Amino acid sequence: QKNLAILSPDQIELAKMLLETGQSNLFEHWPEPGVDDEKKRNFFDQVTRLNASYPGGLASYIQTARELLADSKAGKNPFDGFTPSVPSGENLTFGDGNFVKFEEAGIREVRNAAFVLVAGGLGERLGYNGIKLALPSVSTTGTCFLQHYIESILALQDASCRLVQGKYQTQIPFVIMTSDDTHARTLELLESNAYFGMKPTQVKLLKQEKVACLNDNDAKLAVDPYNKYRIQTKPHGHGDVHSLLYSSGLLNLWHDAGLKWVLFFQDTNGLLFKAIPAALGVSSTKQYQVNSLAVPRKAKEAIGGITKLTHADGRTMVINVEYNQLDPLLRATGYGDGDVNCETGYSPFPGNINQLILELGPYIKELTKTGGAIKEFVNPKYKDSSKTSFKSSTRLECMMQDYPKTLLPSARVGFTAMDAWLAYAPVKNNPEDAAKVPKGNPYHSATSGEMAIYRANSLILRKAGVQIDDPVLQVFNGQEVEVWPRITWEPKWAVTFSEMRRKVGGNCSISQKSTMIIKGRHVFLEDLSLDGALVINSVEDAEVKVGGSVQNKGWILEHVDHKDTSVPEEVRTRGFRINKVEQLEMNYSEPGKFCFNP
Ligand code: UGB
């Protein structure tokens, strides 16, 4: 009470709110006025931020926390009354007529889309010291995930504007959600690389705030153990992206500019953009308000399952059920074996890869009602079975894929399933944990993430008629992976399967030991036989036809131990490095037509 005198009127209001919501413990250790007054006022700067960044303010946060903590203590099932079943969606097969049709529809639409990347997570499971966006997606080129994402968006933008002729050149907006853990390093990565070719005005960073930690079932806020004039905070989860987008005002700006779609994606999936055009085509053709990308899921794999939930009162929703909740839900609703594979060898529930496509109009309408608040959950680690005290402080969390939970049952919510080899290869697990993944389940490591890109590129080229040797099996960092030829191309070379087919012709073949890097747009492969390493660099206005036989010693994969700290972290985390023994490098730096055929 005595300390109120040193505070401003706004700060006094906040102090009263905290006292009324039972948070007197925050002030118990405060000395008399005159001691640490500046620090006490700074404490309220933090309270002001926490209050402003949560829909409904801190009082609402505390209220929700009490309810969720009571439910958790009572062991209440969040899916009480709901029965799960497998929802229906669009299952696509890469390269068939249906896929090509959806890809074309997607390219048409993409100029009306905005992309949102959630990149506020530190990636504790991966244990990498840098930000995940800065990790190389492949080591042949060293292209990091952020560069790959930006080049992919730019390539889609160009392809869309070419298809819809006569329209002005659109600039697709790109938002990155960061956090205190990732913001400065993300900005630095962009600025030191000239935004990887994107216009800086196209890119917007939105920083998510952490939320207050809770000490007990009564939702008492925790004092920071290192600073008694601060409330301890922890990340709130990727669900923050909705309230941030809403409060930024961007959604209305996009709507006024005629945009129709918002695409959300995660920080380390090097395959994703191969699936985006077709998935967006499905959204626009089927008029899905919410479309989740999905891949076949192995039972117990650490990705959520897309599930139709039907309530006893008739309500239904199609929603992700998180991987740790799916098994108990199934067991509680008559599926005695829980989360198990069916006769296909996969879980019957499609795996959520957290790539969402939302229709902008209905999205804005919904957020206007909710302010972007997403249904939260709490996951306290209790000291014992009495569930009266916690091992360490907890906090409320939310997930971006829970957005449909507040929608009316009439909302058009669907999913688009594709093969995992085409759409999903995240880098989430450190080498030691990856090596312990049950055989047959994906490793989701830097090793498997990179190998998956070579595999997908090889399979796509095969489908386009190129003869590609079978892979060999090799073990890196304790993980057995298929090693295909190390083929990569810049996204602008081909953003769809149709475009790829136009770029390869005749009888092309690539041996397993080969590496091929294509940088440039108008590069055509015709009757090329490659057994070694080939690097093609070509400027925008050059048209290059590459054929004939290319043979050299090539680039060799050498084993590296993930514990060898003399090797850079980016390299040892994948368990191999590339020894560039011999290659043919072709550079076309002037406009014109060129033909290479040794
Ligand atoms: N992220 C943020 O931006 N802010 C945060 O506070 C936290 C994360 P994880 P997770 O695709 O395999 C999700 O940690 O949450 C970003 C789905 O919930 O990699 O364990 C972070 O930077 C799950 O259903 O994944 O699991 C990253 O880009 C399944 O789909 C993204 O959010 C799983 O991903 C995901 O964070 C998966």
Strand content: 25-35%
Sheet with most strands: 8 strands, mixed
- Shape summary: globular
Q: Uncertain segments of ≥5 residues (pLDDT<50)?
A: none
Q: Which ligands does the model contain, each kind named once?
A: ligand UGB
Number of helices: 16
Gyration radius, in Å: 26 Å
Rounded average pLDDT: 94
Q: How many beta strands in the DSSP annotation?
A: 31
Helix/strand/pairing category: alpha/beta
- Main-sheet strand order equals 2-17-10-13-9-3-4-5
Folded structure, characterized:
This protein has 598 residues and is of the alpha/beta class. It contains 16 helices and 31 strands. The strands form 9 sheets. It has an 8-stranded mixed beta sheet with strand order 2-17-10-13-9-3-4-5, with helices on both faces. Strands 18, 22, 23, 25, 27 and 31 form a 6-stranded parallel beta sheet that branches. A 4-stranded parallel beta sheet has the order 21-24-26-30. The radius of gyration is 26 Å and the shape is globular. The model has no long low-confidence stretch (mean pLDDT 94). The protein binds ligand UGB.
Sum up the structure in keywords.
single chain, 598 residues, alpha/beta, six-stranded parallel sheet, 16 helices, binds ligand UGB
Provide a compact summary of the structure.
The chain has 598 residues and is of the alpha/beta class. The chain is built from 16 helices and 31 strands.
